[in-house]
Amino acid sequence: MRRSDSKPFTMQGWAAGRPPVAALTDRERDVLCWIRDFGPITRAALIRVSGLSGPAVFRATEDLTAKGYLLIGAPVAAGRGQPSHEVQLNPDSAFSLGISVMTDFAEAAIMDITGRVRASANITAPGMVRQDILSNASQFLAAQEAEGLVPSNLVGVGVALAAFFVDDRLMNPAIELEDWALVDLQTPVENIFGVPAMIENSASAAAVGESLLGAGRHTPTFAYLNFAAGFGGGVILDRRLWRGLSGNAGEFAAVLNAVDAFVPNLETLRERVAAQGRSTTGIDDLVARISLDWPGVEDWLSDAARSIKLLSRIIAETMDVGTVIVGGRLPQPLAARLAEAAMISQTELDERQRRKRGRPAPRIIPAEASAGAAAVGAAALPLAARIFSSPVAR
Predict the structure, then answer these.
(1) Which domain covers residue 127, as residue numbers?
(2) pLDDT tens column, 148-191
């Protein structure tokens, strides 16, 4: 999207008069979570997985259907007894917008209540000006109305920023994002879109995206390493984001800086390949074209692997997290190669522990979610907070 010379677009008119999200009881939220996790499911099966009584499941699913969140299908026969109706989430009942802003790249994604990404777009603006990026995001969202998304079903906006928190609302990004620094972001975002907003660190949001759509589907607890222009991370404990005291849990670059270790990121990778004659116009170009056989890549991978191996040992020893995921905007072939190179053998740990027995070595695996995990995770935060149980552990 290009910057427009017209008056900045605002969603206030688009969302004017929208009714509030239908109030949900704790039981209804739980039922929605079970149906989200198991997919289309009969009421009889829902009784078994939830432990609720038949009347409780019937009442909850009927109420949720009346509120528009569920679709009830035809009866399904399964063994003895009466056929049971199948229930599923209504994908058009609720959706959210996620906005990811990095030093050189911004992306928007729309997620519906089922967790499916309905649309995404590059919303980068020259100079990464806040007003222009939010205007691009709002125009992108408005354009989705023609694709069947109902404006009144927007439940919230999540913004993921490459920065660290200095308090509950203010974030401190790199110099490239000066327009986003140390200002209240929540209020202007809510004023533009007319719905509640949640602000999060981009690496933590990417970890949420990986938890929902990537390795988190089979790995409930992990540390996520986010490779972009900078380097950071997030921590997922039992499928919930651990933010820490001030929202900065997962600032792994600071750990490497403290021990004077190489901090791997895509800018240093770009510099290494450029020194070997492979010039790129920026990180976007690098991500699109890079190959494992480019000169300079193996050199970068070697240094990065040493740092990731060190960091993974620190994570495993201090947080007892058994899986470290290599992700962010790092292309999948490079992520897989780096994870393999950084793997810690059990022998390495056993040699330095009592009686030659150490703690279990952490797994180091590549991310499975797309490179747009930060925008996806940002979209998931308000949807989960307003419809399902909270995705954040405190």
Answers:
(1) 95-202+374-393
(2) 788 889 999 999 999 999 988 899 999 999 999 999 999 999 99
Number of domains within the chain: 3
Structure tokens at 216: 């988190």
Phi, psi of 67 (to 5 degrees): -80, -5
Given a contact cutoff of 8 angstroms between Cβ atoms, the answer to whether 64 and 32 are in contact is yes
Which residues on neighbouring strands pair with residue 101, listed in sequence order? 106, 161
